[in-house]
Amino acid sequence: AVVVCNPNNPDGGYQHKQALVQFMDAMADRDLVVIDESFLEFADAEAEPSVVQEAMLRPNVVVLRSLGKNFGLHGVRFGYLVANPALAGRVRTMLPKWNLNSFAEHVVFMLRDHGPEYARSLHQVRRDRLEMTAWLSALPGLTVYPSQGNFLFVRLPVGAEGTAVRDRMLTEHRILVRECGNKIGSSSRFLRLVVRPQGDVRRLVSGLEQVLYGAGRGAAVPGTATGTGYSSGTAAVDRLIQETNGSGMRALTARTAAAGTGAPGPAPG
Question: What span, in angstroms and rounded, lies between the C-alpha atoms of 60 and 27?
């Protein structure tokens, strides 16, 4: 199976609809193509970003959606799949008999009464994302990557250590940030930060300023003698985001096809 998250997690990278349709066509000989749109409701890069309609016309494509992500109801664990009837039918035969609990079912029906509020909330998240990006981008040495999710992916300044930043932010400022060193191909220099209202962002920025640049920065930002260059993980994430965030689906398609044949893919441009 080939899996594409759009927007991607943890960086929030986004592929335009037309690029994804071309990708699905290029993967027509694969057994299964999974397009995960769990965070797509937060995207505003184009008016109609979903490939649900296109997926239903193809025999090997499924689209995943999640109400838990959109509504912030993570404990409900409610998601669904969209595919053409034949493929959806095969998936249905493999599901457990009680794959939806009564609480989740009740919540889903309640959500129908909150459409306008939901639309306003999505609009606010998109505005908060822009403001939060601007605030964080003003911090020296901090890189904020373009995101279409309800989170931002940032690279800490050279020499900063993510686990130390995370621990100090929690103990000194009561703010929990997600250190991404355990993500495949990533390194501890990357953090994922959920989009928050302006007041919370002010607290976050103030805390990062003290941890990264204050007199007591300590282990969060080691001196140059401890090594300040890119780790292989940091360089790999930078390269991957540059290749796939919004404009690199062609290269991703080529690499995926090459992986299936055992042939080497094209070198990054």
Answer: 9
Q: Are 205 and 139 in contact (CB under 8 A)?
A: yes
**Are residues 245 and 238 in contact, defined by beta-carbon separation less than 8 angstroms?**
no
- Measured N-to-C along each axis, helices 249-261 and 232-244 cross at an angle, to the nearest 10 degrees, of 110
Instruction: Please answer whether residues 4 and 34 qualify as being in contact, where contact means their C-beta atoms are separated by less than 8 angstroms.
Output: yes
Residue 134's identity, in one-letter code, is A
CA distance 222 to 147: 29
Q: With beta carbons less than 8 A apart as the criterion, state whether 160 and 227 touch.
A: no
134: DSSP letter: H
Domains assigned to the chain? 2-115 (3.40.640.10), 122-241 (3.90.1150.10)
Read off the pTM: 0.78
Segment 204-255, tens digit of pLDDT: 999 999 999 986 554 455 443 333 344 444 544 555 555 555 444 445 445 5
Closest CA to 207 of 158, 147, 136, 159: 136
The vertex-209 CA angle with 207 and 213, nearest 5°, equals: 130
Cis amide prior to 10 (ω within 30 degrees): yes
d(CA 16, CA 51): 10
Task: Tell me the per-residue pLDDT of 9-39, one tens digit each, with 9 for 90 and over.
Answer: 999 999 999 999 999 999 999 999 999 999 9
